[in-house]
Amino acid sequence: MVDSQYYLPNDIGISALDCREAFRLLSPKEQMYAHYLSRASWYGGLIVLIQTSPESANIYVLLQKMFRAQAPPQLEAAATAAGLSAEEYQAFLVYAAGLYANMGNYKSFGDTKFIPNLPKFKALVWESLAFKQSPGDMEALWGCCCESLYSLEDKQKQLGLGEKGISAYFSGNCCLEDAEFAQKFLDSKNLSAYNTRLFKTEVDGKRCYEVRLASSEVCFGKHEFEDAVFFVKRGDYAFLMEKVCQNLEKAKDYAANDNQKRMLEEYIHSFACGSVEAHKEGSRYWIKDKGPIVESYIGFIESYRDPFGSRGEFEGFVAVVNKAMSARFAQLVNSAEVLLPELPWPPAFEKDRFLKPDFTSLDVLTFAGSGIPAGINIPNYDDIRQTEGFKNVSLGNVLAVAYATQKDKLTFLEESDKDLYIKWKGPSFEVQVGLHELLGHGSGKLFVQSQNGHFEFQISSWYKGSETWDSKFSTIASSYEECRAECVGLYLCLNKQVLSIFGHEGEDAEEVVYVNWLTMVRAGLLGLEFYTSESKSWRQAHMQARFVILRVLLEAGEGLVGLKECTGADGRPDAVITLDRSKIHTVGKSAIQRFLCRLQVHKSTADVEGGRALYEGYSAVTADGTHNFLRLRETVLLRKEARKMFVQANTYIKGSCLLVEYEGSAAGLIQSFVERFPDDAEKVEAQLNAIEEFLAPPKKTNPFLSVLIN
Q1: What residues form the annotated binding site for Zn(2+)?
Q2: CA–CA distance, 353 with 389 (Å, rounded to integer)
Q3: Number of Cβ within a 10 Å radius of residue 158
Q4: 177-214, pLDDT tens digit by residue?
Q5: Which of 12, 89, 514, 557 has its CB 3.0 to 4.6 Å from that of 642, i.e. a possible disulfide?
Q6: This protein's superkingdom (predicted)?
Q7: DSSP assignment, residue 439?
Q8: Which entry of 76, 437, 467, 481 is annotated as an active-site residue?
């Protein structure tokens, strides 16, 4: 019997992101700018299918062909003819919606595989109009993905490197040692891993690696490195990168200022030739573009899903500023220079100068990628963040629907806490996101040796040459940094000035603090869903971070946090987590203060050994000690709730720029994707099918590329 955690439930929450009013308030020029940025983002977002798993692109094409021939209501008749019940057809729609929402058949939050909860998928394909119109093509597509569609072999249950899971960033024969060796090669050539994938072969007993760089231009270079050969091949996702560039070029005509134009020019250059340096230059212009009405960012950004922690997943977002909420965040920015010294590390470990960033609340029009976060702090380039700044965004219309909670589905809390939690979860999360993004990710210094070898600090370790936070801390970097930012949020939410900025005073302010800390310890328990006991590995950076914080606060003792196992009203295993609000400002604050200081010192000084020992120690999930976390994990899995999915609008040009919205349902989500590529859907699907064939190992090298890299 298949474990239910690999199915998406038929009653999964699906909500439409409301952006109608925000889009309506844009000028015609701003609407056109947003439209073409959205087009670039949606084309680029298809890259995530290829980054997720070998079969994701083929499943996507299969579904698109079925739904382009018959919309969900029409396809239902074929489902009935194929012998599917109403529940099975709903399961099919939910699976398809899940694939679109996650841009692949692995959950974007947790990285576990999900499979169709129906045995008659093939019968439905054969009964569909798409099959009757092109039986050969549809049978070939089915043959490409039918086994992997349902396979739950141990390695295929989750994303990972080597025997720990599936990764499309690496060929299946790569292991951690290959990733580390390739990083050495990339560092030696001053190449970033952000926009690459790695594939390994062996020729005459010699290791050969192919580094594939994302670009619309195609060329090859060959390099001997130690005892191996590296082929550097530009042209990964070439067709899609070209579509991104074409739409960014069109967006330039509607840019509001020179910073936006130059930003887009650098992005186009980056995506054409695969230059991360050009993307960094574009990001510099993006930072300078203060307070735009239409905000956007695009590229290979977050490295959460690379098992080695260095390669970025493609994402692109377009959003409209919410001026009322942004005013609060602006107040927080203006208070940052007063709040930063409150953080518990020595002044020498803080940036020499705080570069005031934009911090805006945005209503999302488009977010293309594997999922939609609640807040973002970008760019992720350490050298830019340290000396030139960054931007923070809070995604307001995402927050409005993502964290709505029904009392009867609220797990692991005492009844007396549930009403408080429901009332204050939204306001407290708003505070946490603001602090997490601005003063969490935006704080702290890295000690970096200058290019001439000079440094002005007395410490035993530091960042050298081309080393970055991601390349140095690799597999733990993402989660460690999320944990540091979450701790900053917990620590500074105790500050009355911060609470006042968000409009919370007196008893209300104390409720916000209590629910913020309660949310964090509950999230630490929920995080156990994202731990794989067989491989002893974590699959989600934020949830690992929250579990670590739970461990720290449990360790603090003195009754601050209580966690007990029990039997629920339904007779099944359950658990209850409690928080003593009277000890948050004393025991809790001291525990976070000490832990946060240790996190920062290890990060600042590039102390990988010390940082890894600390973080992996608290990340351990065992049956030993006061709490049996392995048994608690089973309880969490038993009572887990599926993560909500979002339906996004489309824009079209018919004389003027039009917004088309869809209902918040599986059928609505599916229809939004069917209508997303109206002009060239078949060509896009053909390219997705052909992309792996296109990326066969190189037969010749380009000497000019070798010169360029060297």
Answers
A1: 436, 441, 482
A2: 10
A3: 21
A4: 999 999 999 999 999 999 999 999 988 889 999 999 99
A5: 12
A6: Eukaryota
A7: I
A8: 437
